[in-house]
Amino acid sequence: MRTLPLHNLFRPKSILPGAVAGFLVIFSSCQRSEETQTVNHPAPEPDAFCGLPVPDFETAIRMIQERRDNFPKVGEPAIPFSLPSARSEDTIALSDLHREKPVVLIFGSGSCSVLGRSDSWIPAVYDRFNEQYAFALIYIREAHPTQGYRPAKYAREVRPVLDAESLENRRETAARYAEAKALPFPVLVDTMNDETARVYSAWPVRLFVVDTDGTVLYSGGQAPWFYHPFEVYQHQAPVAPELQDLPRSDRSLEQFLEFHSRQ
Questions:
Q1: 34 in a domain, yes or no?
Q2: 116 domain-assigned
Q3: I want to staple 75 with a disulfide (CB 3.0 to 4.6 A). Which of 35, 57, 145, 147 is the partner?
Q4: Do the domain assignments include residue 140?
């Protein structure tokens, strides 16, 4: 299994233990304050983009704008879902995933070059944190389908995949991806009308952590520009002007897991 070195924010050798302790107290207080300021909101209604391949960059921008505030925020209840497994006949609910420990949710697809750049990170972070956290991948609509949007600038990185025309097609595609990447955790498949990706503002790739009580602990930034799996990761493309104010997290998932696992 390939791994990448994970960068540890909370173990700088030059900082004294007392200073670290003080920083963590302040950090923890800020996190609790953020959680208490959020309120629950109903699941968003379907939109005009549901169930359709993404044909071009302009459509991708409009869809991201339309769904920008759909996702559950830190401190809110996660929006429940129940989805088919890619590798069995089981249907798995979100509550099944976080029943025993918090779960890291990875939304993405095999044609997503952003997910592809960090796919060695996934087994590395799983190996490091799987005793404290469960993991699951939700396979969503293709980022770069053969019949849709394929950025010429990143042609060498993008591996287009045929956008599924049925749920069974998507299950088969997700199963092949899971096998190719040797993913050691559940892989679920979103509905054909993109219900889960829509309510989590998750296309083309996004990260969340949900606690055992169903509360969102971590809500990653909108990809591709604000996808932040580990500290040194940075997307290459400039942010589209109309998306400069997209919601984002000020921490990488790695930083969050490192901090939260010590509580």
A1: no
A2: yes
A3: 35
A4: yes
Contact (Cβ atoms closer than 8 angstroms) between residue 67 and residue 209: no
Length of the chain: 263
Cis omega before residue 204 (within 30°)? yes
Extended beta strands in the chain, E state: 82-84, 91-93, 103-108, 134-139, 187-189, 206-210, 216-219
Query: Which segments within 162-204 are labelled E, that is strand?
Result: 187-189
Percent of the chain with pLDDT over 70: 76
Whole domain around residue 218: which residue ranges? 40-260
Residue type (1 letter), 216: V
| Cα dihedral 195, 196, 201, 202 sign | negative
Centroid of chain to Cα 234: 15
Q: What pTM does this model have? A: 0.79
Tell me whether residue 23 is in a domain: no
**143: which 2 tokens?**
């980022």
Task: Tell me how far CA of residue 115 lies from CA of 26, 59, 138, 163, 232, in angstroms.
Answer: 32, 20, 12, 17, 15
235, amino acid identity: H
Check pLDDT > 60 for residue 79. Answer: yes
CATH of the domain at 146: 3.40.30.10
The domain tally of the chain equals: 1
Q: How crowded is residue 57: how many other Cβ atoms within 10 Å of its Cβ? A: 12
178: tokens are 């899971």
Using pLDDT thresholds of 50, 70 and 90, give the confidence band for residue 222: confident
- Residue 16 confidence (pLDDT) above 60: no
